Amino acid sequence: MISESIQQIKASLPAGVTLVAVSKTHPESAIMEAYEAGLRDFGENKVQEMAEKHAALPQDIRWHMIGHLQTNKVKYVVPFVHLIHSVDSARLLAAIDKEARKVGRVVDCLLQVHVAAEQTKFGFAPDELHSLARSGGLDSMPGVRVRGVMAMATNTDDQARVEADFESAARLFGDLRQTVFAASGAFSLLSMGMSDDYPIAVRHGANIVRVGSRIFGQRHYAG
Ligand SMILES: *Cc1c(COP(=O)(O)O)cnc(C)c1O
Q1: What are phi and psi of 43, to 5 degrees?
Q2: Ligand 1: which atom is nearest the Cα of residue 45?
Q3: Which residues lie with the beta carbon below 6 Å from any ligand 1 atom?
Q4: pLDDT digits (tens, 9 = 90+) for 75-102
């Protein structure tokens, strides 16, 4: 079941698009099934859950932090995380930089941009992102490497709205890549698309998709 879903999704993705399997709330056995099917990229949204799974599972798994990260928990993920998708403030970026330098790492990060209609989503507004990037503040952070942008579309059945959200995020990504980050070949990742909308995201240029329920089934939250 898990491996069939993975094969189907992989077959539908163009070359060069990374599939991150979002394994939050799912047991280690489910992750191992996906691992045996060839996946190495897994996404989690809670620090403790990711740290526990990292300790218990094969060390060649690339762990992606996709959920809101509190600055006081940064130290628990910095030693091993592969990519932090959910950098939503300059303060968080500074905290990651500080911890990364302590452990001698350079941590890859994406700037989460808020393009969806919902008020509750975390992330930078597009103009905030432009001013952060232009401020030069990123240049003095040797512990982080800004690799691109992460976005979520509005949670709606309205396909036109989803298209518009992904288009905004893709345009912002393109603008930053050609301006502030033009000198950095590292700014190349656009993470967008989940189970219900990843084909649309890919059409708009996503090169990382984060797919959970379509691989692992429904999530059951305890408590
Ligand atoms: C849970 C989650 C996903 C995966 O959602 P599905 O709809 O299960 O594919 C992707 N991205 C983020 C940020 C998430 O929190």
Answers
A1: -115, 135
A2: 15
A3: 22, 24, 45, 66-67, 152, 194-195, 210-214
A4: 999 999 999 999 999 999 999 999 999 9
